[in-house]
Description:
The chain contains 16 helices and 14 strands. The protein has helices at residues 13-23, 28-32, 42-48, 63-72, 87-104, 136-142, 148-163, 189-200, 217-232, 254-267, 282-289, 296-300, 310-314, 322-327, 330-339, 346-355, and strands at 4-8, 34-39, 54-57, 75-80, 109-113, 130-131, 166-172, 174-176, 203-205, 211-216, 244-247, 250-253, 276-278, 306-307. The strands form 4 sheets. A 7-stranded parallel sheet has the order 3-2-1-4-5-7-11, sandwiched between helices. Strands 8-10-12 form a 3-stranded mixed sheet. Helix 4 (63-72) runs parallel beside helix 5 (87-104) and helix 5 (87-104) runs parallel beside helix 7 (148-163). The protein is an alpha/beta fold. The longest helix has 18 residues, at 87-104.
Amino acid sequence: xxxxxxxxxxxxYIGGSLVADFLASNNVLMKEAHIIAAVRSEEQAKSLSKxxxxxxxxxxxDENAVLxxxxxxDIRIVIHTASSxxxxxxxxxxxxxxxxxxxxxxxxxxxxxxxxxxxxxxxxWPSGTIKDTGPVYDVxxxxxxxxxxxxxxxxxxxxxxxRGVSSFIVIPxxxxxxxxxxxxxxxxxxxxxxQASISRKxxxxxxxxxxxxxxxxxxxxxxxxxxxxKILHKDALPSGAKGYYFALAHDLFWWESLDRLAVALxxxxxxxxxETHVWPSDEVAAESLGVPVQFVQTLWNSGENVxxxxxxxxxxxxxxxxxxxxxNIDDExxxxxxxxxxKSSLIDSLFEAAxx
Length: 356
C-alpha cells in the first residue's frame, strides 16, 4: 500500500506543479503513493478534482481540522507550500504529524517551503558566505525575531524535533518557467516584471546589477521529488537543524536578464524600446510592480551568499542553466500573455506583513 502524501498550497504555482509532476512520475514508489491536495477555495478544489485525486478544501488555521485531516487520511508526508510567512499553518501540520506518528507507530515527515529572502543581507542576514552544511540553523535562531521567514524556519525545526517528526526545509531561489499545475501556472518575480514592462511600455531595472540565483520550476519540483523518493526508500537524509536544501540551480545577473527581456518584448512590439531604464525610485517601482515598497528591493534587487552542498549530495542535477534561461526568456512573456496575472496569494501576504 502506497504512502499518503499531503501537498498544501496545491492550487499554487509550486504546489500545483508538485501535484502534476508527482502524478507523472515514473518512480515505482511514487506511482504507488497516494497524493492528497489541500486548497483554500471551492473553486480551486473543483479545478483540481479533474486530476482524479483526493482534493480537500482545508483551513490550515483550524488546528482541529488539520489534525482530523492528517490522522483521518493516514498522512505520513506533508509538503507545505502554502505560506512561509505565517508559521501557525506549519506548526498545526507538524503537531498533527506528531499525533499521526503516535497513532500509527510509523515515522512522519514534514517538508517546508521557505524563501531565499531569509538569507539576504538587506533583511538582516550577516555578510559573508555560509554553507547549508554549516550553522545555518544557529544563525537563523539568533536572528529569528528580525524577519518572519527566519522565525518560521526556526519554529518548524523546533516543533518537529519536539514532536518526533523529521523536517526538511527547501529554499527556492528565483523560480521561473510555466508551472504544470491546474490553477496557477505563473510565478511572481518574472511575470510581474513582464506585466509592469508591458503596462509602462518600458523595461525598468535597479541601479545595481545584482547577482541572484535562479531555478526552473521543473528542476525545483525534481528536488522535492528526490527528497520524497529518499524518504520512501528509507535512505538517511540530513534533517532538522541540518536539513536545509537550497534550490540554487545557477546564477543570474538582473541587468543581463532584463536586457534580454527588453529585446524580446520589443520584438513583439510590447514595449517602445529595446533599451532598459533605471527605476526613478523604489516608490515608483513598488506602484508599478504592485507590491509594498519595503519588499521591492528584497524581491528584485537582492542576492544570497550561500553554498549549497546538501542538494548536490542528494544527487540533484538541474537541467536548466543560465544560458538556457536567457535563450528561452520569450517563454516568460508568452506565459504572461497566455495566463495574465498570477493567481498567487504571495502579494496579498506581503501587504498583510507590511501592515504588521
